[in-house]
Design brief:
It comes from Rozella allomycis (strain CSF55). With 112 residues, this protein is mainly α. It has two helices and no strands. 96% of the residues lie in helices and 0% in strands.
Length: 112
């Protein structure tokens, strides 16, 4: 019977050691799982950034919008150049008429 008691005590000690080892491994697993969760979140963040950068590189819409704006600006500049030319011509014509009128007034003064 003593041998069974000794075996029981030895098994009990072994069980305690296994429980301690199990608890230590459980804590390690918990720590590793937490670390894995943090790394997964960080990886997801980096993936989102890469997707955003990738879509920005392949999305030509901003470039198309810029080209359209430049085209509109060129058209507006041509229209403004034309309007400026018309105004300059009218101003020149007006000045010429004033000079002609002034010149005619001088001619009428000389003859009178």
């Amino acid at each position: 019977m003593e041998s069974e008691v000794d075996t029981f005590k030895q098994n009990n000690i072994t069980l305690s050691n296994v429980k301690l080892e199990f608890q230590a491994n459980r804590e390690k697993l918990s720590s590793i799982s937490t670390e894995l969760g943090q790394m997964t979140e960080e990886l997801d963040m980096y993936k989102a950034q890469m997707d955003e950068l990738g879509s920005g590189m392949t999305d030509a819409k901003p470039l198309v919008n810029i080209k359209q704006a430049i085209s509109r600006l060129k058209t507006e500049i041509k229209q403004l150049d034309l309007k400026t030319g018309v105004v300059e011509q009218r101003l020149w014509h007006s000045r010429m008429q004033e000079k002609g009128v002034t010149h005619r007034m001088e001619e009428t003064m000389i003859f009178t």
